[in-house]
Amino acid sequence: MKKANQYQQEINQLKTQLNSFDSRYFEKLQTYILSQNIFYNDETINLQLLSMLQDLIDAEKDNSDATELFGNDPQSMANEILAQLPKPKLRDQLSMSTLVIAISWFFLLLSSTSTTSGIIINLWAFILAPFLELITISLILKILHKSVYSKSASFFQSVLPKISIAILFLLCVGLILLVNNLLIIGPTITLPTPWNFFLQGFILIATLSYFFYTLTKQKHKK
Fold first, then answer.
1. pTM to 2 decimals?
2. Comparing 113 with 127, which gets the higher pLDDT?
3. Nearest-CA neighbor of 36 among 147, 173, 161?
């Protein structure tokens, strides 16, 4: 099993041992760190969080709490941790982007207009949809990251990030559906049957192969 997943499982199990105050403290810290950059190495981050969680559990046994152990400014501490993490490699960024593109193309093929001669592919949709999805994912993470330690405690400020994320998600889905269905706005090609099935199968196999390759690579690192 991938080490990052092992660490995550340990974190989920150990968090149940925390009292309510420390649990909220750690949850916010975890969300803040994980939402900083989707391309960061999960294994490195989860190992760091696991180590901090174990220290916090030990502190509780000594009648201490999160603020005594980590301080009253968890945001500054989290920023220091993030600054010490190795920068995401270009290879990891390209791998994640490629995965988003492959999944996007697969579902676009499934939703493309079918005719007796094959399926009609809107080339603009295949260009714009992955771009919109990557931008939306990045914006959602930024909103989530900024909202964790928001200074305002008002009800409106607390629900505003959730509303913004929901609007972004719906806007992204709406734009993709709009571009994919308005064939007149750009060039289209007709992919004859059975080549459409071959292309769908190729994208699906390539995506699954990527998952298995990543899983195998992580096993060899143990």
1. 0.70
2. 127
3. 147
Facing residues of 191 across strands?
119
Is the model more confident about 141 or about 107? 141
**What is the C-alpha radius of gyration for the chain, rounded to an integer number of angstroms?**
22
First to last CA, the chain: 9
H/E stretch holding 113: strand 113-115
Q: Are 107 and 130 in contact (CB under 8 A)?
A: no
Structure tokens at 203: 């994208």
How far apart, in whole angstroms, are the C-alpha atoms of residue 55 and residue 71? 13
Type of residue found at 90:
L
Count of Cβ atoms closer than 10 Å to residue 45 Cβ:
21
What percent of the chain clears pLDDT 70, i.e. is strictly above it?
80
Percentages helix, strand, coil for the chain (3-state, rounded to 5) are 75, 5, 20
Nearest to 49 by CA among 65, 64, 28: 28
pLDDT recorded at residue 144: 87
What is the crossing angle of helices 3-15 and 42-61, to 10°? 30
**In this predicted structure, which of 42-56, 116-130, 183-197 has the lowest mean pLDDT?**
183-197
Tokens of 17: 């041992």
The per-type count for the chain, helices as H runs and strands as E runs, is: 9, 3
Both tokens assigned to 191: 């992919």
Tokens of 7: 């660490």
